[in-house]
Specification:
With about 325 residues, this protein is mainly β.
Amino acid sequence: MAQAPDLPDTDQPAVKPPGRDGPREPSPSPSPVGPASAVGIRLLDAPVNRRDDTRAHRYVVDHLRPGTTIERRIMVKNQSEDRRPVAVYAAAADVTGEGFVFAPGRTENELSSWITVSRPELDLEPGEETEVLVTIEVPRAAEAGERYAVVWAEVAGADDGQTVRNVGRAGVRVYLSVGPGGEPPSGFEIGPLTGKREKDGTPVLTAEVRNTGRRALDLAGDLRLTEGPGGLSAGPVKVEAGTLALDGTTTVRVALDRRLPDGPWAAKLDLASGWTKRSATGRVSFGPVPVAATTAVDRSGQVLTGGLATSGLVLVLFAVYAYRRRIRVRQPVAAA
């Protein structure tokens, strides 16, 4: 399997983009928690050497030598209809078998203790947004390894005298690798594709994905089906595989429309985490008994192209297939 090339350390200018204490909660995305509409946050910068890495435009993803300091800008917006105070701070996070998880409240870990924000307290009018500078200062004595945190923007609901107050917060994830030399490689493998049909009739394609690199991954991509009955094709269907920890494995599961014919189909699954991309192909069927693909190919450097679509396309293709069958049945047979 090919590995991503080493990258230079990123203690350099940024460009505009086109914890271990306490119980943890799953955080599938750096999205609001609680009253989600109250506050918004987004990253404004990405490292120069990651201008083609879409993941680095959404999260702070970097590799730094000990003793390095970097700065990144974020935009915080009051999305409510009232003037609100907004707190901006860093807190602990981790990547486990459950994916990317964050610690409750302002729980600290090593990485969050290295992060400071230029304006920890904001007072924003409805719809107002403002920039905040985030500084990450890696100590000279820091040990090599990857660390995780979240930079949060938080608002509290109005105090109505009740015991419980709603708190809403939105965050930007931080994936920071520390160590000498170039960045550790990222990589993953996709196992054989398998098709089956659930008891309720839903066709499902599954594949096991294993993180073979030395950085956590955020996997997404699409599935295409071709060479189906009557020459039908379906997709691309959007695939969200979530965050995969170091040495971790996950099963990607893609549910399709119940009216999809059993097949066989030629399946192609494309997944990517930033600029690390892999593909797997194989022949699958969606009969009552799970059938593994006859082949699986892992291709590095594959670029995902085209828009992502829902399985609604499958419905259209199935209708065309059914229409063709009716045409064949009604066609008169020539006399001998």
